[in-house]
Amino acid sequence: MPLLPDGHRLHLNHGPIDVVLAAWGPPGEVARAYDQVEAAFGAVLPALARELPVLRSADRHAWDRLEGPVARAMARACRRFPDVFLTPMAAVAGAVADHLRDALVAGRALAKAYVNDGGDIAVHLTPGENLVCGVVGDLAAPALDARIRLSSELGIGGVATSGRATKGQGGRSFSLGIADAVTVLAADAATADAAATAIANAVDLPGHPAVCRRPAVDLDPDSDLGSRPVTVGLGALTADEIAMALDNGVALAEQFRSRGAIAGAYLTLRGQRRITAVSPLALAA
Predict the structure, then answer these.
(1) How far is residue 114's CA from residue 170's CA, in Å, rounded to a whole number?
(2) What is residue 185's DSSP assignment?
(3) Are 94 and 185 in contact, with CB atoms under 8 Å apart?
(4) Residue 229 to residues 175, 194, 215, 226: CA-CA distances in angstroms?
(5) Which of left, alpha, beta for 131 (phi over 0: left; psi -120 to 50: alpha)?
(6) pTM score of the predicted model
(7) Residue 200 and residue 230: Cα distance in Å, rounded?
(8) Which terminus of the chain has fewer Cβ atoms in its 10 Å neighbourhood, N or C?
(9) pLDDT tens-digit readout, 95-151
(10) Burial level of 255, CB count in 10 A (0-12/13-18/19+)?
C-alpha cells in the first residue's frame, strides 16, 4: 500500500491522475477503506480513456451516450450549468475525487475522510467532525491565502479550484478567463470543479490589450476547448480593471449560488479578492 512517509496518507498515481487521500477511524476500518479505494483506482483512467471523445465534446446530447460512473458524474455536474460553455472535462478531477471518496467510505465506519485529486477535494464528514482546507490564491505561485473550515452541518462535499495557470505552470488545463484562482464549495467535488471552471472563465476583460490569448488547439491539439482562445499571458491592469473582472466572476457565482448549485466561491486576481459564501464559517480569509 503506497502510504506517504507520515504513515497515514495514501498516495495513488496513474498517468495524469495524482491523488492523496486520508481517512480517520478505527485502524482496521481505515486499512480496509484504503484497500477498497486502491482496488477501485486502477479502473478509473482506462474507463475515462474509452469515452474521451464524448468527454471532450460540448454536445450535451452526446453526453447521453456516456456509460462509466465517473464519466456520467462529469456530465451530470456540467448539466447543472446550462447557460455556460463546458465540456465534461471541466469536472474530471472533481468527479474522480468523488468516485474514490465513495469507494473509500463504502461500508466502512470512518469519522471523516478526504480525497485530493490535484487540488480538487471530495470530503466525508460525520456529525460533529470538521476539516480545514487551505485556499491557494494564485495557482502560478502557490501559497496559503485563506482557510476553509468545513463541518458536516454545512452539507459541503466538494472543494475545487480553477484559474489561468497554464499546463506546465501550475495547472492541468487552460482557462478562458484571467482569474488567478477561483475556489468553489459545493455538495460534491464534480459540481465544484465545473462551477470553478465556469466562474474562472467569467473573470475576464474581453478585448483588453493586456490579455494575451491563443487558440487552445495551438497549445494542445487534443484540448477539449478546440479553437477557443485561452489566456496565455496577462499584462498590467489598473485596480479598477481588476475589480471589474472580478465583479464579472462574482455575478456568475451569485447566479449559481442563488439557485443552490454551489455553496460559495472565493475569487482572486492580482491581490484583490471577492468572497460569496453560504456561511462565513465555511469560507473566511
Answers:
(1) 22
(2) E
(3) no
(4) 9, 19, 4, 9
(5) beta
(6) 0.93
(7) 12
(8) N
(9) 999 999 999 999 999 999 999 999 999 999 999 999 998 888 777 777 788 888 899
(10) middle
